Amino acid sequence: MEDRDNLQRRGLKLGHLQLMAALAETRQLGLAALRLGIAQPAASRLLAEMERIAGQDLCLRTGRGMVLTPAGQALARRADRVQMEMRDAARELAELGTGGAGQVRIGAVTAPALEIVLPVLRSFRLTHPGVSVDVAVAPSETLCAQLLDGQIDFVLGRLPAGGAGQELLAMEEIATEPVALLVRRDHALLARDRVLPAQLLEYDWVIPGGDSPMGKAVLTRLADLGLPPPPRRLSTASFLLTLALIQQSNAIAPLSRAVIDQFARAADAPYAELALDLGIVVAPYGLLTRRGAILPPAARLLSQAMLNSGRRTTG
Description:
D-Maltodextrin-Binding Protein, domain 2; 7-stranded mixed β-sheet; 3 domains
């Protein structure tokens, strides 16, 4: 590789990358310097060195601070990646030095959290007692943003809608998500011998927002059946609020079949599944990681266990 193409040979150092990452977040040279624990003149020198090394402007000064140029944005994205890799390298060395102990941070949407994460963690804690695990359950968009920020090691979910950040993520597909309808145990529809799809629209529905994978799948399937969107519906991504609304009202909630199996399976459960399959299927979910990232040992072991379990369970 020629020297003009090698930033490291031209003098690029970790301190330069740290400043670029701080500038991308703060948009202020003084705040970026404060974050790095250096004086502002030293930060100015680092920025000037970077622009000399890059051969072009990386920031534009404005009255409100600094705006990164396209070249600056590209370098800042790489800087984030380098810093995440350095943190992961430190974690890997620490895990190796402590004989397998470590911490893993994972995210999951609701269905895989119940169907995959919960049973895998039960056995993983026995085989790897020195590993602590933090689990975040949230919509895929939230989890993927945390994944890209380095707050989470991997996610069981879906690529974010609209393509935002998709090129930075890698996904190993696990399964699609069939959907069933959940109501309270003494719901009037359960007493009917036969329920027609159109009759469901007489009741309130609890559905995630229309931009969510579940919301899109529900509304698309109803349209395919020649039905309008439910005229009375509450949009929420909160699983706990959904369960509370079902238990305290006549509302209907489309939920993953894996979730319904967990909460409506027992004879004395306060919830029940409607015996009407509308054929709703949510797009596939999978194991998401930052593209090209090398997970620390404990996270790598747990992610593979989750992937294997998911494919066995749904295969």
